[in-house]
Structures are given as C-alpha cells and as structure tokens.
Design goal:
Blueprint: H1 3-40, H2 55-67, H3 72-86, H4 92-101, H5 104-108, H6 110-123
Helix pairs in contact: 2-6, 3-6
C-alpha cells in the first residue's frame, strides 16, 4: 500500500469514529433536557418505587396504568418499574414474566405487553409457581 492510501484509510476511520461519537453526544443532551423538564414540572423528588408483595398488588398497578391514556413512553416506564418491583420475587411465574419483559419485541408494543401482563397475572399469579385456567 502506498503511504497516501494508508493516510486516507486512517482519516476515514477517524471520521467514522467521530461521527459515531457525535450521535451519542446528542443522545446525552436529549437525556439532560428530559431530566431538566421533568424536574421543572413540579416536585424535584424521584417517583416512589412500586411495592409489590402480592399478585393482587401487581394486577392493581397494571389496571391503574391501563386505565390511563395510551402513551408508549409512560407504558415502557411502567414496564421497567414493574420489572424492578418483581425482580426480587423467586416464584416460577415471576421468573417467566421477567424473561418475557426482556424480549425486545415487547418493548415495541408496550401497551399490548401491559395487557398481556394483566392476562398472565390473572392466570399465573406472579407470587406462585402454578397457573390456573390455562388450556
């Protein structure tokens, strides 16, 4: 390879790296704007963590969220909050649901997944190892 070709190839690699860094730096700025706007909307304290001790708690929280207007961003946030709330549960059904939360397809359809979570908990209580009513 000629020295000019090595130089051009190196320059192209550097430019590609800089372009990818620019993309990520813009994303950080968006996160800062979102957090700044959320702190300006009222209280400066983070929302309280969901506490789920029983399947009834889980279903109530999901039903409360499903009665609100569909909002993909809020629905995704709810799924993450629910994931955090049930992550310490050791039942088979909680583990199954946690595995399904990790499915990337479910992140694309958060409202439908919340409805599925409601159906699942109605048939397979998250605080249990058994399911009822399934055929």
């Amino acid at each position: 390879m000629k020295p000019q070709q090595v130089f051009i190839l190196g320059a192209l690699i550097i430019v590609a790296c800089l372009i990818s860094l620019l993309h990520f730096s813009n994303m950080e700025g968006m996160d800062n704007k979102e957090s700044a706007s959320s702190t300006n909307e009222g209280s400066k304290e983070p929302p309280a963590a969901l506490v789920i001790k029983t399947n009834a708690d889980f279903i109530k929280i999901i039903n409360d969220k499903l009665t609100a207007s569909p909002d993909p961003a809020k629905d995704k946030a709810t799924i993450i909050e629910l994931q955090d709330a049930i992550s310490s549960m050791t039942s088979k059904n909680a583990a199954t649901l946690l595995g399904e939360i990790g499915n990337p397809h479910n992140a694309n359809t958060p409202r439908a997944f919340l409805k599925y979570m409601n159906w699942f908990a109605s048939n397979c209580p998250i605080d249990s190892d058994t399911c009822t009513g399934l055929q």
